[in-house]
Amino acid sequence: MKKALLLIDRGSREQDVKDELYAICSLAKERGGYYFSNYAFLEVIPPYIDEGINSCMKQGAEFVTIMPYFLYPGMKLKEAVKQSEEIASRLDLNYAVTECLNYHTTFVDLVKDRINEVKNKENLHLPDKECDILLIGHGSSDRDARNAFVYIADSIRKNYRNVGFCFLELDKPDIAEGMYHSFTNKPSALILVPYFLHRGIHIKRDVKEEVDKALQNSNKTKVYMARHFGVDDKIVDVILERAREVEKKVGV
Length: 252
Hints:
Elements: E1 3-9, H1 15-32, E2 36-41, H2 49-58, E3 63-68, H3 75-90, E4 95-97, H4 105-121, E5 132-137, H5 143-156, E6 162-167, H6 175-184, E7 189-194, H7 201-214, E8 222-225, H8 233-249
Parallel strand pairs: 1-2, 1-3, 3-4, 5-6, 5-7, 7-8
Helix pairs in contact: 1-8, 4-5, 6-7
């Protein structure tokens, strides 16, 4: 059977985001043995979901595994799943929709990886137990999204001196509040971890601007910024695991 894999992302005009998605799709296709793999966007810019599904069908796919490529089960994810199911059903497509990336322990490991990367890059030789961590999430009005993010913070709490979390928008504490609270703990070093999949405009501009504002009250605390998740073999592992879960259920 010719199987295709389609990732549904929120959407971005940034070329870096498209490049990262292309790389992820290519790795997943090769390692997962898919006949075809592609991505589509929920909003902002084409290719939209209907175009993504049609691209799979035009390539001769007999079954399409659709993954909502989101870190949280928020409103955007729910809309992506709804649209995908409606379009696939209307086209009489054989398909299955996976879980998103939330509540997977691999992302706990990825956060630790990003912390270790920035420590090595900056020659920061403090033991983990002397480092303070602040996770920065996008934010959502959906309580399920907040809970999934807090799960990550709680999962790494035992490994570091202090672990906090904050949001770019739509939820509290915001970045200024999160950094202010971190500074009150008088850290030897504060490592910021942007919990974002892509190097989009939020990483390039929005998070940076909010962090720069907050640094005016840093009391000369050493602050380090880790990188976003981007293209990573561990993320491909999660994608393939989620895909195999639903494919096994339907006997594909």
